Amino acid sequence: MAKNPVQPVALSLRERKAALTRLGLLDAMVRRLRKQTLDEITVKELCSDVGISEPTFFNHFKSKHELLVLYVRLWSVEMKNAMDVPGATALESLKRLFVLTARATATLPRLMKEIISYQLKYPITAKTGAPTRAELLLRFPSIGNVEHPGPFAIRSLIREAFDRAVQRGELPRSKELETAVSVLSALFFGVPALNVDAPLAEEIYLSGLGSLWRGIGGRR
Fold first, then answer.
1. pLDDT tens for residues 210-219?
2. Structural domain containing residue 106
3. CATH number for 119
4. Exposed e or buried b for every residue in 51-86, given b needs 16+ CB within 10 A?
5. Does some domain include residue 195?
6. Which of 30, 72, 104, 188 has the fewest C-beta atoms under 10 angstroms from its C-beta?
7. What pLDDT does 148 receive?
8. Structural domain includes residue 9
């Protein structure tokens, strides 16, 4: 199915300025995570990178940790678009998700570990780190009808792929599917802890996905 054409959306000056500030802080955090841990990064440093005051930072985020959730939600939009390839099977879409994850993790290994650590320590609600309409439009100007991602974005992407596979007859309808979604979600977050390079991470991801897919009767 062809994607809907992108329609220009007008943003107010206030919306645009706020979105650029929040996205700028996010990008500053990602850059600093190449050499520092999140604990080592200060709000003062992030504000200096973007050219704002600390009170302004706290007008947008309760803490620097919320930037991690914003990153996950924006990244999930990117992954959803990457998986949405016309004619691709659900298995092919999942393979694409895992391959891109392996490569992103190899590029920014500390970022993924910080995200995992945050999710283990703190509950993520529907409002935590949620991107604004303006942020979605500015970060993804070429994607039409950008959807607002939920708090458990990765699990949702995997679940959607499984549901699509059942609808298309690529997977049998089974009570095991929910367990399979949980297993793949665990695999998704577990591989970064192994500290392996991108090719090996891809191999582990795809091997695990293939074994599980065959185990629940998936059609290749």
1. 999 999 998 8
2. 65-215
3. 1.10.357
4. ebeeeebeebbeebbbbbbbbbbbbbbebbbebeee
5. yes
6. 30
7. 58
8. no
